[in-house]
Amino acid sequence: MGMSVSEAVSTRKSVRAFTAQQVDPADVQQLLKDAALAPSGGNVQPWRIWVLTGDVLQTFRDKVRELRADHPMGQGGEYDVYPQDLWEPYRSRRFKNGQDLYASIDIPREDKAGRINQFGNNFDFFGAPAAVLVGIERRMGPPQWSDVGMYLQNVMLLATERGLATCPQEAWTSWHQVAYETLDWPEDVMLFCGLAIGYEDTAHPINNWRSDRADTSEWLHEAKLRNG
């Protein structure tokens, strides 16, 4: 009996260290195809997907690596991953998430170089043997961005079911220009995020950490009539 949806949801996590085991490109293609049954308003299906494996992935990594010495945090995004001046409780959640992540690999807060180096692993897809860059046409609006999110959730849950690990990475907006210059990328499409795909390095301590979730009392509401 295969993995249930509930098991896939509860066991999926963002993996930040991968083994060297290769992923069959045909399996990646099938995974991405199967995920396209995701809901989409008006059946627009706005996601645009580029798969990077083999020499293409290595060339792309090498190009980014060349530039990282001068731009350790990237060259700047096309959109803000988080709102400016993030407010509570979201600011505290984000702060704690970062603290917990670095603590899992024994990088103290005062070790700025260590933190920058770990953040830079984003731009190596954490060593994953396969990667995806996800785009959306610039004329699309927030509802279509939500469709892309639902597609990505399908990809990650199906990957979990098939024994693969993933890590979604909005940080790749910081290197959008490299993608546009290196790959056959159309001008009317914005790079939204990357997705690392491979096999989890279960021995790496960073993969033994899980981010926590807010109590339902913070976000779950029973609807009531305003004048009731």
Description:
This protein has 228 residues and is an alpha+beta fold. It has one domain (5-84, 123-209): 3-Layer(aba) Sandwich (NADH Oxidase), CATH 3.40.109.10. It has seven helices and four strands. It has a four-stranded antiparallel sheet, sandwiched between helices. α1 (5-11) packs across α6 and α2 crosses α6 (142-161).
In short:
This protein has 228 residues and is of the alpha+beta class. It contains 7 helices and 4 strands; from the N terminus they run H-H-E-H-H-H-E-H-E-H-E.
Q: What portion of residues belong to β-strands? A: 5-15%
**Shape by Cα distribution:** globular
Helix content: 25-40%
Radius of gyration: 18 Å
Instruction: Summarize the helix and strand pattern as letters.
Output: HHEHHHEHEHE
Q: Report the strand count.
A: 4
Mean pLDDT: 95
Strand order of the largest sheet: 1-2-4-3
Write down the domain tally: 1
Q: What is the count of DSSP helices, taking H or I runs of 4+ residues?
A: 7
Rounded to the nearest angstrom, the distance between the terminal CA atoms is 49 Å
CATH level-two architecture: 3-Layer(aba) Sandwich
Largest sheet: 4 strands, antiparallel
CATH topology: NADH Oxidase
- The structural class is alpha+beta
Blueprint of the fold:
Blueprint: H1 5-11, H2 25-35, E1 48-53, H3 54-68, H4 90-104, H5 112-120, E2 130-137, H6 142-161, E3 165-169, H7 176-182, E4 189-198
Antiparallel strand pairs: 1-2, 2-4, 3-4
Helix pairs in contact: 1-6, 2-6
